[in-house]
Automatic annotation (TrEMBL):
It comes from Methylocella silvestris (strain DSM 15510 / CIP 108128 / LMG 27833 / NCIMB 13906 / BL2). This is Calcium-binding EF-hand-containing protein. SMART domains: EFh (SM00054). It comes from the Bacteria. Pfam families: EF-hand_7.
Length: 130
């Protein structure tokens, strides 16, 4: 095989690997989020993981997230703050997780598998819970 062909094969392999990353990432994430090891994540499991994430985002431990604290997880802070008090509390954060979960569950079976986590909606949920 010539250098040119070897380089082309290497570039192709790299591209295939890059495009495969979301599915691999979703599978790895699924194992972490699935304590009962049934191959799926339920809303309760997502909420439990999300609560841990909420606590990690709240360094001042005041029970709320301001826009700066929530910036890495919550993409639309205004929507996550329905009472418009300038903070997202644990209940509001849980509501965001539930809404994201429902969007990531197109078959409405109440669980998410690796393929569902690999979608844009699934990635948004992962951002909230991991």
């Amino acid at each position: 095989m010539s250098f040119k062909n070897t380089a082309a094969v290497s570039v192709l392999a790299l591209c295939v690997g890059v495009f495969a990353l979301p599915a691999f990432s979703a599978t790895a994430n699924l194992k972490v989020l699935d304590p009962d090891n049934d191959g799926t994540v339920s809303l309760a499991e997502a909420q439990a993981a999300g609560h841990k994430k909420f606590l990690s985002l709240d360094p001042d431990k005041d029970g709320t997230l301001d826009a700066k604290e929530a910036a890495t997880a919550v993409h639309d802070f205004a929507a996550a703050d329905p009472d418009k008090d300038g903070t997202v509390d644990a209940k509001e954060y849980a509501a965001e997780i539930e809404a994201a979960f429902k969007k990531a569950d197109p078959d409405k079976d109440g669980t998410l598998d690796a393929a569902e986590f690999a979608t844009p909606a699934g990635q948004k949920l992962l951002n909230l819970i991991q």
